[in-house]
Amino acid sequence: MKFALAVYGSRGDVEPHAAVGRELLRRGHEVRIAVPPDLRGFVESAGLTAVAYGPDTREVLFGKKANPIKLLSTSKKYFNQIWAEMGTTLTSLADGADLLLTGMPQQGLAANVAEYQGIPLATLHYLPARVNGQLLSGLPSPLIRSAISAFWWGYWRVTKKAENAQRRQLGLPKATGSSTRRIVERASLEIQAYDDFLFPGLAADWAEWDGRRPFVGALTMELPTDADEEVLSWIAAGTPPIYFGFGSTPIRSHANTIAMIGAACRRLGERALIYSGVNDFNRIPHFDHVKVVGVVNYATIFPACRAVVHHGGAGTTAAGMRAGIPTLVLWIRNEQPLWGAVVKRMKVGSAQRLSRTNEDSLVAGLRSILRPQYVTRAREIATKTTKSSDSVTAAADLLENAARRRRFS
Q1: Rounded to whole angstroms, how far apart are CA atoms 289 and 241?
Q2: Higher pLDDT, 296 or 137
C-alpha cells in the first residue's frame, strides 16, 4: 500500500509522523512524507523520502512573530499563498495513495485533498483536542479547555477563505462547516499519541466513538546520536545530573538562563546537563558542574539522570515519564501548560512559568521534585506508560486497517 504523510511544525510535531512512517516502510509499504524544509534532513536520516512542505519553521515558528496563528492571521495574503503552495504539494504527494495522515494544524488542508483524491484521512493528535471544536471533560483546567476551544475557533476563522479557495481549485463544493466538523462527520481515524491514563475519564468519554479515537502512547523514534556515548561517559564520571532542555522553543536570554541553572544546581549540590536546542549557547557562562550538549537520545540519556526539567513538550514529557524520573515543567507558551498540569496531576513533578522563574524559585522547584515521594511515583508511572515500540506498532496497525477498509473520510 501507499501512504502519504504530511505535517508542519517543529521536531516535536514531525517525529511522531516519522516514527509511524518508518514502521510502515519497514513493513514494505510505500511511504511519502511532507515536512518543513529545515526538517527534511532529520526525516531522511530515518530512511524516509521527504519533500519540502511550507516555509522554514525557523521563519514562522521561531522568528520575531513566534505565534504562527497570529502571524498568519495578520498577513492573510502571505497565508493564502503558503496554503495554496502547501495544497499543491499535498495534492501531488497524495496522488495514488491509499491513505493520508496529517497533524492537527493542517487538518483542513489535508481533509480537502483526501476528499479530492477519494482516500481516507487520518489525523495524529499528541494532546486531547476534539476535532469538532468541542472540549473534553478530561482536560485539567477550564483555562486550558478554553485555550483549546479558542484555537479551533481561530483556526477556522483564519483558514476559511484559503480553504474554500483550495476547494474551488480542486473542483470541490464550498465548505458548509469547519474542517473539524467535517472530519468528525466522515468518521476519520484520530490517533491519540499519548497514554489514556494521563487524562482520567477521557477513554470512557470517547467510548461512543467506536474506536475512532484510539490511544497508542507517545510516538518516538529514539534515534541514537553521535553525542550519546560521550554524554554517558560524562554522567558516569560524577553524580547523576539533572537534565534541562527547552526543545525547539527559543528562550529569551541564553546566558541568564544558563547562569540561573548553574547557580541553582550549585546551591543544591547537583550537576546539570543542558540541551541547547534552537538556542545559541556559544557565549555562555562556564561552570564545572554544567555540561551543554546538542541533540541526544532521550531514551538513552534520561534514565541516567536524576530528574528532567523542560518546556512541557508532549514528546519530552513522555520521555521523562518513560524514564521513570521526576519532572519540572518550565512552560513558555501554547499547549505546554497542559503538560505541566498533567505532570502535577500524575504527582511525578511540578510546573511553573519560565518567565516567572528565578534562581530561588528554581531551587525550590528542584528541591521539591527530588523528594522521595516524587522519585517513587515517577518509577511507578513509568511501568504504566506504553513502550515506544508498542506505540509505533499500534499506530501502524491502525493505519493499515484504515487503508484496507478504504472508508472515505
Answers
A1: 9
A2: 296
- The pLDDT assigned to 134 comes to 37
Mean pLDDT within 302-308:
98
User: What pLDDT digit, counting tens, does each position of 343-377 carry?
Assistant: 999 999 999 999 899 999 999 999 999 999 999 99
**Amino acid, single-letter form, for residue 162:** A
**Surface-to-core class of residue 218, CB atoms within 10 Å of its CB (0-12 exposed, 13-18 middle, 19+ buried):** buried
CA dist 222 and 261 (Å) reads 26
Question: Are 348 and 378 contacting, i.e. CB atoms less than 8 angstroms apart?
Answer: yes
Per DSSP (E only), the strands in 276-407 are 290-293, 307-310, 327-331, 349-353
For residue 267, the Cα-to-chain-centroid distance in whole angstroms is 33
Of 139, 136, 144, 128, the closest CA to residue 193 belongs to: 128
Identify the residue whose cell numbers are 492571521. Answer: 73
Model's pTM, two decimal places? 0.89
Burial class (CB in 10 A: 0-12, 13-18, 19+), 269: exposed
Sheet of strand 189-192: strand arrangement: 49-52, 30-35, 2-6, 99-103, 121-125, 189-192
| 76-80, 159-163, 231-235, range with greatest mean pLDDT | 231-235
Q: Nearest CA to 304 among 242, 383, 388, 230?
A: 242
114 phi and psi angles, rounded to 5 deg: -65, -40
The one-letter amino acid code at 78 reads Y
**How far lies 283's CA from each of 279, 315, 318, 345, in Å?**
11, 28, 31, 38
